[in-house]
TrEMBL record:
<dbReference type="GO" id="GO:0046654">
    <property type="term" value="P:tetrahydrofolate biosynthetic process"/>
</dbReference>
<feature type="domain" description="Dihydroneopterin aldolase/epimerase">
    <location>
        <begin position="4"/>
        <end position="117"/>
    </location>
</feature>
<dbReference type="Pfam" id="PF02152">
    <property type="entry name" value="FolB"/>
</dbReference>
<dbReference type="GO" id="GO:0004150">
    <property type="term" value="F:dihydroneopterin aldolase activity"/>
</dbReference>
<comment type="function">
    <text>Catalyzes the conversion of 7,8-dihydroneopterin to 6-hydroxymethyl-7,8-dihydropterin.</text>
</comment>
<dbReference type="GO" id="GO:0005737">
    <property type="term" value="C:cytoplasm"/>
</dbReference>
<dbReference type="InterPro" id="IPR043133">
    <property type="entry name" value="GTP-CH-I_C/QueF"/>
</dbReference>
<dbReference type="InterPro" id="IPR006156">
    <property type="entry name" value="Dihydroneopterin_aldolase"/>
</dbReference>
<comment type="similarity">
    <text>Belongs to the DHNA family.</text>
</comment>
<dbReference type="GO" id="GO:0046656">
    <property type="term" value="P:folic acid biosynthetic process"/>
</dbReference>
<protein>
    <recommendedName>
        <fullName>7,8-dihydroneopterin aldolase</fullName>
        <ecNumber>4.1.2.25</ecNumber>
    </recommendedName>
</protein>
<keyword id="KW-0289">Folate biosynthesis</keyword>
<comment type="pathway">
    <text>Cofactor biosynthesis; tetrahydrofolate biosynthesis; 2-amino-4-hydroxy-6-hydroxymethyl-7,8-dihydropteridine diphosphate from 7,8-dihydroneopterin triphosphate: step 3/4.</text>
</comment>
<dbReference type="InterPro" id="IPR006157">
    <property type="entry name" value="FolB_dom"/>
</dbReference>
<keyword id="KW-0456">Lyase</keyword>
Amino acid sequence: MDRIYLIGMQFYGYHGVFPEENKLGQSFIVDLTIELDLSKAGKTDDVADTVNYGNLFSTCKTIVEGERYKLLETVAEKIAHTVLSDEPMIQACTVKVIKPNAPIPGQFHSAAVEITRKKDERK
C-alpha cells in the first residue's frame, strides 16, 4: 500500500483532563499517514486520482480546534474516523496527536497517542 504523510501540523486546542487545559488551551501537533493506491495518480499526473492534502489538513484543524475532549485518544479517533469516512480512496490511516506541554511534573519532550485504523475495521 502506498502512503501520503502530513507531518507536524500545528493547531491550538482545548483538550485535557484538567480545567486549566480546557480554559487556557495549548498547542497540539498532528502527524497523519494515509494508505491508498497511488499507482493511477503516478501514471496520470491528475489530482483527481489522489487525495487533496489541503482537505486532510482542514479535517485535522477542524477537529483539533473544534470540540473539546479530555483525551488525546478521542482526538485521534475523531480524526481517523473522519478521514476514512470522507475520503473513499483511503484504506487506512495512522494518526499521531502530540501534546508538547502536557501537565506532567518533570522534564520530557511531549506526550503523544498514535492509532492506526483501517476502513474495513470502522465501527
